[in-house]
Design goal:
- The chain is mainly alpha-helical.
- It has 3 helices and no strands.
- Helix 1 crosses helix 3.
- The model has no long low-confidence stretch (mean pLDDT 84).
Length: 70
Amino acid sequence: PSVIRKARSTARDGRIARKVEFWNDVRDLHAKGLSFREIARRLGSDRKTVKKYALSETFPEMARYPVRPK
């Protein structure tokens, strides 16, 4: 693979790792009984994002769409 493609892949992997860590933090705090609002305040995120992550059984990954031909 090209250097640019490899760099993009590495950056994407880092973003995904941070999101998985955030998802785990949200799930842990929710299991301790904190409200969505309190979790959002502590983690500096939107309440709706916290609710989505707290109620999901698995990590909510974005759908990958095929590249359109030119």
